[in-house]
């Protein structure tokens, strides 16, 4: 099974006052930490979607086997960034890469996510053949989430202001879940950053 990864790293971090992608945690930036996790899944192409601060973030990823994709309309919402990343992942097929069976959607700033959680999502998809495998936390289902090829068209049809959760919530009967304790802890505000440090 070939699993592509779309890492959403386009946000402007307006509440934080600095690019969250470049915040350092345990000696590395959040975007580098997320990319290393994505690469550890080890199944297919990795697309990093950039928007605000694209040059500084791309520089952080120099030399890594990822596709950096710029979404000029990143400020309209996550849907456009998700589509841009999915397009980049699927473009690898036409240049001789393997057929992508599923895509993993990932954020930079969910600090309780680790490589073993991402691998659990992949294992769950393999064993259940579900259309969607989502992370379960804080009474909700969200990303990181794995979407089978059967729902790629739904991801591509998302309006700019809507993220992956729109596809996850559409039909709960087709969604498998993997618990992610603390999955709602992210880095959005100076208070979050202070807690991180």
From TrEMBL:
InterPro entries: MobA-like_NTP_Trfase, Nucleotide-diphossugar_trans. This is MobA-like NTP transferase domain-containing protein. One of its GO terms (molecular function) is nucleotidyltransferase activity. Pfam families: NTP_transf_3. Residues 170-197 are annotated as: Disordered. Residues 5-171 form the MobA-like NTP transferase domain. It comes from Myxococcus stipitatus (strain DSM 14675 / JCM 12634 / Mx s8).
């Amino acid at each position: 099974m070939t699993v592509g990864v779309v890492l959403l790293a386009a946000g402007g971090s307006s509440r934080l006052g600095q690019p969250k992608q470049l915040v350092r945690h345990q000696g590395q930036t959040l975007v580098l930490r997320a990319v290393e996790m994505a690469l550890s899944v080890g199944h297919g192409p990795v697309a990093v979607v950039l928007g605000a601060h694209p040059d500084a973030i791309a520089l952080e990823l120099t030399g890594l086997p990822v596709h950096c994709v710029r979404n000029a309309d990143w400020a309209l919402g996550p849907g456009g960034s998700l589509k841009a990343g999915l397009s980049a992942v699927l473009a690898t097929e036409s240049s001789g890469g393997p057929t992508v069976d599923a895509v993993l959607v990932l954020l930079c700033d969910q600090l309780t996510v680790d490589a073993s959680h991402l691998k659990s999502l992949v294992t769950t998809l393999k064993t259940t053949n579900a259309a969607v495998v989502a992370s379960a936390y804080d009474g909700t289902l969200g990303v990181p989430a794995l979407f089978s090829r059967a729902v790629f068209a739904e991801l591509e049809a998302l309006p700019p202001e809507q993220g992956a959760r729109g596809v996850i919530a559409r039909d709960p009967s087709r969604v498998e879940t993997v618990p992610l304790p603390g999955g709602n802890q992210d880095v959005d505000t100076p208070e979050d950053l202070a807690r991180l440090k």
